[in-house]
Amino acid sequence: MLTKKLNRTLPWLMPKVAVLELHGTIGGAIRTQQFVPAIRGLREDKRVRAVVLDIDSPGGSASVSDYLYGEIRKLAAKKPVVAFIRGTGASGGYYLAAAAPHIIAQRAAIVGSIGVITIRPVAVELLDKVGVRVNVAKTGTLKGAGLPFTEPTEAERAKDQRLVDQFFDLFIRVVAEGRRVSAATVREWATGEVFWGEEAQQLGLVDELGDLERATALAAEQAKIPEKVTRVRPRRNPLLVRLTGQATRAAVHALATELRRAEPERVQFR
Predict the structure, then answer these.
(1) What single DSSP character describes residue 13?
(2) Residues 6+ apart with CB under 8 A from 204
């Protein structure tokens, strides 16, 4: 009786379903510096009894995806977690969804793209045309592998493929565990292609089709609480917010994105 009275007079004490937005490229808009503390905060917050992951991501950094996956798994071990794929849950985005025991996708969502890629620009011919040469001193045959001004050697190509294969095997294990299916089944899904929501459900990549309301209702049901929802957005750097205006931040973000794309040998769940 006292608890009900307090809930009416102090609504912030009521148990809640938290919706965590995971929108954008992993390693870009979705960074460990902001999202790991947010996930840990949800894990420790006693008012938050269940969490919905609101996912709209094409993937990104393999290492960042795996770090966040581990944090979500720890969260799911403590309280109900439901993944909702809003628009795109592809590659690293799907990797994060697989951390939740239950996945709901919007019927026109893009789901899957289970696979790994490395991207290495090669600018040797361009540098030859403009008359630029680059001298490199290094130790070890594979030191400096991925530099854009040298042709990849056979040893570098072999190393790249081993790295891709290792990350791919990890991806397969993660999805097999999350979806509670065999690794062989996941390998049938892992052609690198995407599936739209209805097909993804038929294959078993998602459990059901629905919207965010359905996801929060299910999370509340699993936590045995009323459906009171709060949205969670990780804190941004306050100094950056003060020092830069909206237009400047957009320009800085665009520049940072291009620089990240130019980084050699970045392994991605894409």
Answers:
(1) G
(2) 179, 181, 185
Furthest-apart CA atoms within the chain: distance in Å? 82
**Cα distances (Å, whole numbers) of residue 159 to 154, 165, 260:** 9, 10, 21
2-269, superfamily in CATH? 2-enoyl-CoA Hydratase; Chain A, domain 1 (3.90.226.10)
More confident residue, 234 or 67: 67
Q: Is the distance from CB of 100 to CB of 81 less than 8 angstroms? A: yes
29, HSE (Cβ side, Cα atoms, 13 Å)? 14
Give domain limits for the chain: 2-269
Spatial separation of the C-alpha atoms in residues 78 and 183, rounded to whole Å: 26
91 is a catalytic site residue = yes
What letter does residue 12 receive in the DSSP assignment? G
User: How many alpha carbons fall within 13 Å on the CB side of residue 162?
Assistant: 6
- pLDDT tens for 2-60 read 445 545 555 556 899 999 999 999 999 999 999 999 999 999 999 999 999 999 999 99
pLDDT tens, 229-238?
Answer: 999 887 665 5
Which residues fall within 8 angstroms of residue 19, CB to CB, at 6 or more apart? 51, 52, 54, 212, 216, 229, 230, 231, 232
pTM higher than the cut 0.70: yes
Per DSSP, the chain holds a count of helices (H) and strands (E) of 11, 11
What are the backbone dihedrals phi and psi of residue 19, each rounded to the nearest 5 degrees, phi first?
Answer: -110, 115
In the set 61, 91, 113, 182, the catalytic residue is 91
